[in-house]
Amino acid sequence: MISILAQERLLGAALGSVFAGVVVFEQRKSIYNSISKNYPPTTQSPMRKPVLAKKYGPEFSHLWNSAVDQTFGPVIQALSSRGW
Questions:
Q1: Between 15 and 58, where is the model more confident?
Q2: What does pTM read for this prediction?
Q3: pLDDT tens digit string along 22-58?
């Protein structure tokens, strides 16, 4: 049977762990609250188009998609024929 001294040590370790967990949780909550107060969420900025899309427009997108289809088309066909 566990001795009284061992029981006291286990109880102390358990209470110490709970106390440390509460302290860490409260500290994190305080940090997150201070960050959200100091840096409020900004409004959404409009998405910028990539440079190539600005310069070449839909032609570049079509060329890119064609190149990807030609490159990976055989691989996709092989995998789909095997049931993947």
A1: 15
A2: 0.42
A3: 999 999 999 988 888 877 766 655 666 666 666 777 7
Tokens of 76: 């996709």
| Cα 28 from Cα 22, distance rounded (Å) | 10
Question: Rounded to 10 degrees, what is the CA torsion of 12, 14, 17, 23?
Answer: -80
d(C-alpha 10, C-alpha 3), whole Å: 11
Structure tokens of 40? 């409020």
Phi, psi of 45 (to 5 degrees): -85, 145
Q: Where are the domains of the chain?
A: 1-41, 44-84
Secondary structure string (H, E, C) spanning the chain: CCCHHHHHHHHHHHHHHHHHHHHHHHHHHHHHHHHHHHCCCCCCCCCCCCHHHHHHCHHHHHHHHHHHHHHHHHHHHHHHHCCC
